[in-house]
Each structure stands twice: as structure tokens, then as C-alpha cells.
């Protein structure tokens, strides 16, 4: 197996795919450039660049943007990423609602929808929402490259939800299910863990340097981490990674990190008379906690400090094991970051063997509550950035 | 940077290197084969295989082993890995002693030496031992491809020991130091964490399937883990990974995994009247603990059960985060594995969210106390297996 793969990575289609990727990444990183500038900074010769760019223009991934101005010699035509022809959809599943998001290859958000739903009805609701989103995007004249569904818990590589306590799912072949019900609409379907997808979104749209070793921590449905390592999501043997909430040490029945640093325990402590029934969507409760914190409520501030301390211990564990460059506090944690981060940073540094927490910076996400949906869409668009244009032909 | 790399990985030298690697791996995996058999099972055409194999024979990495027997048509010459011309050296540093090991490309161990040493004298002792080992190997008519020094603690990518509590080292540019003192002997020097190198050795010489996601746990000098992920050692942002011993949760001063599951605390508990002074080398004490366990001493067996339980909690944490296929208990843990594993397996399964510990198998290393030295040598030989023959020219 291994050997055949190696042979493939060396054949000539891949040389071209690699070079297509080089051109696309150059333009994504540096903005509009002339063919000559692309050749100069990628090390590819001009004839190759001309052939690659005409391919990409033909595929509507690039467009010519007129002439360059201030330069010596005759002006050259500049090329820019287009990608308005291609889009992808991410669909994020929570215990009480679905979020659908579509983005095009150039990074423009095309739609963001929320739907209330019960987990036991999620299957049909996902299908319906995916179909509506796909036809809306197609009405806008875009090809849909694929759909990725983001769920909390353990998702096996094949797209089976092995175990999702927040959704009450076990051994559910969600990918198979949706591929069947969406066959008519011709959508390519993938399923992945929401924290992993959120980490991918932070890497591409979070606007932080140092994304090659990035960890995203979600508190939306239990505490989970999405690990990007050497630039790629960490899958492990079967895709069951990032379950930091289970972290415990000591006698049987000792509390887990989730018990000590979870968002729901924090809410219950800061809002004693909060209605447990309404804990499906934590957002209003989290906003109320923030309001009390801003008002200087002592009990709320203490609860936030304690949560931050324990979260910091969990992050130290992560930093000691995988040495991330960047730890991004996501969703509800981001909304409370100004109170959580000071305590968390102290514990992170105290419990990490490497000085300055091994160089890990702790920051709040700016991508809001639907980072996983964005990441789900991005995974399909990233395939194009690697020079894999095979899907475009079918699109 | 990224882009230039991609261009490189696609150029033609790399196509050839990749194909050289394919041939070498085929022979390592399948043993002696004819050129036709290599072509058939690698997908390379016969002309390419002939040209690649004559290169490799010229480099003394392959040799012809006479004719194949029972097959239709005229008999063909078989080729086998040779590699007796090339060797590499691993040097393992502990608080009280050095271990030097040399192995050739075909996997034969050429020497295994131990020297007593004090950490404050380690620098000169390492240089002297490396020089003696290199000249011994050269006397045997081998080229030495390189030397890797294995140390406990944090080693930065450049080979600087950032922090090694067991050795009492901080910010020591060990690689620079040794490169200077070994310049005459023309040795290429690398420095890496001992658990990471032991994991590499397990991957290549441990004889387990499923080495692509493997974790090696050492108890030789504190509790550290060497993580191999998707077939490669996990470096993280700066190389500071696998520090599982720091793992703690709860109020300030709560015990760490190292306090609860370390080998030294176990020894102190099982052998109350053991001389703490002699704790530099734990081997005799560990052997005494094993003797008492075999004799059925209740206190010793209880101490082993407790250590196993806490170790299992630490491994569950690892399994929840990086989902290894294989967890290898190394060095002193391996010597006590028959008593540690039952309790550790129970806790590992109990605290891992994924069923059956996410598929992680817990086993004892068969590579003994010098796995890290072996791994140090292997890292240099692995570069040849990837088709990188550049060093051979200089060798």
C-alpha cells in the first residue's frame, strides 16, 4: 500500500497538481500578481506558469484583473483568485439546532442559516436543510463542491458517528444515511468532529500566524479539542482524538476536566436559579454570565476564575503532550475569554514543563459559534488549493 | 518557504529518490526478490527497476544473491538488502551512565557499550565514547552515517537541550558542543528526546503491526511519552512533546502523574529500606521489586496495582487525545509489565471515551533499556530508506 502511494506521489499528474497548488497558494497569500511575478517567486519557469494559469482561468479559479501600473518595461496583466464559481457547505449539528453555512472559493460567505431541531429528528432535518442550502447556492450560479457535517463526539474516518453523548448517538452511519438521502442532489458528503473542523477554520480564516500547530478548544457540548499538527488535523489510528474533557486523575469518581471546566457546570454555578431544561442552547445563559461578570458580581467572577484555572490545567496537559503554537478558546469560551484567560494562562504556564508554556499563545476565537460549519465548508475548498481539480470537472 | 518545498517535492530528483525508497522498502518488507518481481509489485517498469537497482548495488545497499530456483522460464538473479557498508550510532544519556549502540543498514547490531558517568562530566564522556564507537565501527569496514544522542526532557529542534530535570541541564547546546568536539571524526551529530527515539526504534524493530500511530512510555527518568503519529514522530511547534508526567488536575499541590505512577515512587514504596542514594540506576531496585512480586509479597503487589491504575489513567488521557493504535510500556515499566498491565488496561478502558480504548493495545517493549540508543541510530539509517543517498557520497 505504502509503496504504491509513494509511486503515485511521484508521478507526473502529481507534479502538475503540486504546481497548480503552488500557484493558487501564491495568489491566496500575496494577492494579484503577474505571471512573471508568480514565476519569479515560485521558482517555476514562465512557460509552466503560463500553462498552469491558463488551466486555472479555464476552470474559473483565476481571472485577469487588467494591467499592472508602476513597473519598468511594458505593463503585464495581473491574475487574481476568482473562485466565485465554486462553493461548499458546512452543516453544524448541536443538541437543539442546526447551522448551515456556505462559502465560496474566494472566501465569501454565501449563506448562514439556523434551524431549531431535536436530536432524534436530526437526520431528516439535516437532509432538508442541506438540500435547501445547496439549491440556494446553485441559484447563485455556483457549483457546490461538497457538504461536511460537523458533530460533537467520536467520528470514525468513514463518517460513522461512533459515539456522541451530547446528541445521544452511537454507531450511526451518518455519512451513509445522508449520501443516500442526498443522492438526487448530487452532493459529496463528509462527516467530522466539530472541534477538528473548527480548528481547520481557525487555520484558514482565524487570521492568526502560526497555524501549523494549532489547538481549538470547544465548550459548546462538553469540552473537546481539535488538534492541527504540522499543518494537518490529527486523526490518530481511527479518528478518535481531542477528547480532553475525559481527563481525570486520582481515586475512582474523581471529577473530570469537563466537570471542573465545562461551560454547563459554570452556568449552573453562576446562575443557581437557571432552568436546567433550557440548557440545550447555552448561549443565553452564557450571555447572562457575561452580564453579571461585567457588573462585577463576586460569585460569578469567582466561578469564572475557578473555571479558568481548571481549563488552564487541561491546556497545560495539551501543551505538554503536543506542544501547540496557538490555543484558541472557541464558542462559549470565547464569549467569556476576558475573564477565563488570565487564570487559565497562569495555570497553563505553571503546569507546562517547557518555559513559557512551550511557546503556546492562548487566545479567543473570532469566528463565533459556527466555526465548525465554516471548517466543514473549508475542507472541500482546501482540496482545490492542493491542486486537486478532479471534483471541478464533475461540478 | 512552503511553496518552494512543494516545488522541490515535485521535481525529478525526488521522483528518483522516491523510487529508490520504494525498491529498498520492498526488499526490506519482502526479502530477496528478482528485478522482475520488484517491477511487478511496485508498478515501476523493468527498465527503471534495472537502473535503480544498479545504482543501489553500486552504493553497496543491495547485492545479488545468486539465482532463483523453482519458477517457470529461465532463472533470474535475486537481489537482497546488503547495507553492511553503512552503520549509525545511537548514544543514550542517563543521570548515571551512557549507553552506545551501533547498528548497520541491514539491522545487525555492531556494538553495545555501557559507561558509568556523572551528568556534570557527561559532555566530555559523550565525546570520548562517540569517538571510540565510531573508530570501532570504521575498523569493521563500515561508513558511519551519523550519531544521535538521546536525552530525557525537552530538546529543541536544533538539538539544544532546553530543560532536562533528570540531568540537571538547561539551555545546553549539546549538538553544537559535540559537533565541535567531534569535527575531526567527521560525524554528523543529532540530539533528540529519548522517548521519541525509543518510539522510532519500536516502530522499526519492535516487531508490532500498526506502528503508524504508536506511543512509547518511558519510566527511566520521570514519565515521558514518545509519540509517533501518522508514521512520523510528533514534534509540535518546537519539539517539546510527550511530557505526560506533568499531568495533574485539582487544587494547587495536587500530585502529578509522575508522583502517582513513576518508577522511583514505586520503588520507594515497595522497598522502604532501599538506599535513596543508589537511585541513580533504578535497574537493581526494579529487579528486586519483580522478585518480591514473584514471591507474592502483598505490599509489593498492591504498590504495583496502584501504580498500574494511575498509569492507566495517564494512558487514557493519551488515548483520548491522540488515539494511538499501540501503547508500548518501555524500559523499567516493561520489566514490571506483567503486574502493571492488568490494572492499567482496566483504567485505560474505563477512562477512554472511545469503546475498547479507541482500539489502543497496551504491550510491553521487547527492546530493553537501550531502545532510545537504537532509535538514535535508526534515524540516520531511515534517511537512506527514504531514498536520500546524498550522505553516502560523503560517507
pLDDT below 50 for ≥5 consecutive residues: which ranges of chain A? 1-11
Oligomer: homodimer
Number of distinct helices of chain A: 15
Which strand-content bin applies to the residues of chain A?
A: 15-25%
Arithmetic mean pLDDT of chain A: 89
The assigned structural class of chain A equals alpha/beta
For the biggest β-sheet of chain A, the strand order reads 6-5-4-7-11
Which shape of chain A, going by the Cα principal axes?
Answer: globular
First and last CA, distance of chain A: 30 Å
Radius of gyration of chain A, CA atoms, in whole angstroms: 23 Å
- Largest sheet of chain A at a glance? 5 strands, mixed
CATH superfamily of the largest domain in chain A: ATPase, nucleotide binding domain
Strand element count of chain A: 16
User: Into how many domains do the coordinates of chain A divide?
Assistant: 3
Using the coordinates shown, work out and report the CATH topology of the largest domain in chain A. Nucleotidyltransferase, domain 5
Q: Helix proportion of residues of chain A, in percent?
A: 40-55%
Can you lay out the helices and strands and say which pair or pack?
2 copies of one chain form a homodimer.
Chain A (H helix, E strand, L loop, with lengths): L1 H9 L1 H19 L2 E2 H8 L3 H13 L3 E6 L9 E5 L4 E8 L3 E8 L4 E8 L5 H18 L3 E9 L2 E2 L5 E4 L4 E4 L1 H8 L7 E5 H12 L8 E5 L5 E6 L2 E2 L23 H5 L1 H8 L12 H12 L3 H25 L3 E4 L1 H5 L1 H15 L9 E4 L6 H15 L4 H5 L1
Parallel strand pairs in A: 4-7, 7-11, 12-15, 15-16
Antiparallel strand pairs in A: 1-3, 2-3, 4-5, 5-6, 8-9, 9-10, 12-13, 13-14
Helix pairs in contact in A: 2-4, 3-4, 7-14, 9-11, 11-13
Amino acid at each position: 500500500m505504502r509503496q504504491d502511494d509513494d509511486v503515485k506521489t511521484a508521478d507526473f499528474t502529481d507534479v502538475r497538481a503540486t504546481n497548480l497548488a503552488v500557484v493558487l497558494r501564491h495568489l491566496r497569500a500575496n494577492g494579484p500578481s503577474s505571471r512573471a511575478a508568480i514565476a519569479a517567486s515560485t521558482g517555476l519557469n514562465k512557460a509552466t506558469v503560463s500553462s498552469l494559469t491558463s488551466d486555472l482561468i479555464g476552470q474559473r479559479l483565476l481571472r485577469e484583473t487588467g494591467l499592472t501600473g508602476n513597473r519598468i518595461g511594458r505593463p503585464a496583466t495581473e491574475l487574481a483568485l476568482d473562485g466565485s464559481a465554486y462553493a461548499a457547505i458546512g452543516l453544524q449539528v448541536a443538541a437543539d439546532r442546526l447551522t448551515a453555512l456556505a462559502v465560496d472559493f474566494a472566501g465569501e460567505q454565501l449563506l448562514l442559516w439556523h434551524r431549531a431541531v431535536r436530536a432524534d429528528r436530526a437526520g431528516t432535518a439535516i437532509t432538508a436543510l442541506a438540500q435547501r442550502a445547496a439549491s440556494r447556492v446553485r441559484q447563485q450560479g455556483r457549483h457546490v463542491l461538497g457538504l461536511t457535517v460537523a458533530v460533537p463526539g467520536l467520528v470514525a474516518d468513514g463518517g460513522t458517528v461512533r459515539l456522541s453523548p451530547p446528541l445521544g448517538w452511537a454507531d450511526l452511519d451518518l455519512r451513509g444515511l445522508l449520501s443516500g438521502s442526498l443522492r438526487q442532489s448530487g452532493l459529496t458528503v463528509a462527516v467530522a468532529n466539530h472541534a477538528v473542523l473548527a480548528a481547520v477554520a481557525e487555520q484558514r480564516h482565524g487570521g492568526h500566524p502560526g497555524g501549523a500547530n494549532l489547538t481549538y478548544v470547544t465548550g459548546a457540548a462538553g469540552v473537546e479539542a481539535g488538534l492541527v499538527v504540522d499543518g494537518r488535523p490529527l486523526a490518530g489510528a481511527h479518528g478518535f482524538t481531542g477528547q480532553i474533557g475525559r481527563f481525570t486523575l486520582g481515586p475512582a469518581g474523581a471529577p473530570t476536566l469537563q466537570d471542573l471546566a465545562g461551560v454547563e457546570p459554570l452556568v449552573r454555578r453562576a446562575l443557581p436559579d437557571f432552568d436546567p431544561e433550557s440548557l440545550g442552547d447555552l448561549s443565553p445563559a452564557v450571555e447572562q454570565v457575561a452580564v453579571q461578570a461585567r457588573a462585577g458580581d463576586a460569585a460569578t467572577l469567582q466561578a469564572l476564575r475557578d473555571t479558568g484555572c481548571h481549563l488552564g490545567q487541561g491546556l497545560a496537559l495539551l501543551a505538554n503532550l503536543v506542544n501547540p503554537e496557538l490555543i484558541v478558546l472557541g464558542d462559549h469560551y470565547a464569549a467569556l475569554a476576558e475573564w477565563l484567560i488570565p487564570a487559565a494562562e497562569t495555570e497553563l504556564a505553571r503546569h507546562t514543563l517547557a518555559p513559557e508554556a512551550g511557546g503556546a499563545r492562548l487566545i479567543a476565537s473570532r469566528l463565533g459559534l459556527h466555526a465548525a460549519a465554516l471548517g466543514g465548508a473549508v475542507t472541500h475548498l482546501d482540496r482545490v488549493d492542493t491542486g486537486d481539480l478532479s471534483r471541478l470537472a464533475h461540478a
